[in-house]
Specification:
- This protein has one domain.
- Helices cover 24% and strands 20% of the residues.
- It contains three helices and four strands.
- Strands 1, 2, 3 and 4 form a four-stranded antiparallel sheet that branches.
- Strand 2 and strand 3 form a beta hairpin.
- The chain is globular.
- The site of zinc ion (ZN) has 8 residues, from loops.
Length: 104
């Protein structure tokens, strides 16, 4: 993988190479999900609240990806939230959520 030069401004094309899903913060994801259902409880234990972790940098919403079977190079990106009582994990389609957060 080539490394981008860091001592110059990015071109518009380079800026557009940054996927929208990578720009969502944990707070933005939290606010988006609360706007959809602020009173939701865990669907497994019925009592826990869902929490949103940050990625290892602490700056981005947690993303996981899963491959699409039988389609090389294609995967699905998902944000996660986990029950703070039992650990049940739920997923949200990252491209959809990111586009809504960014008003696209
Ligand atoms: Zn739970």
């Amino acid at each position: 993988m080539s490394k981008r030069p860091t001592n110059r401004l990015q071109t518009e094309s380079e800026k557009n190479d940054i996927r929208a899903e990578l720009l969502v913060t944990p707070l933005q994801l939290h606010e988006f999900l609360n706007a959809k259902n602020a009173d939701v409880k865990c669907s497994f234990c019925g009592v826990g609240d869902y929490g949103i972790a940050a990625d290892p940098t602490g700056e981005m919403a947690p993303l996981v990806s899963t491959p699409v079977p039988h389609v090389k190079g294609l995967g699905l990106w998902l944000y996660t939230a986990a029950c703070m009582n039992c650990g049940h994990v739920v997923f949200f389609h990252a491209p959809f959520v990111a586009s809504k957060i960014q008003g696209k």
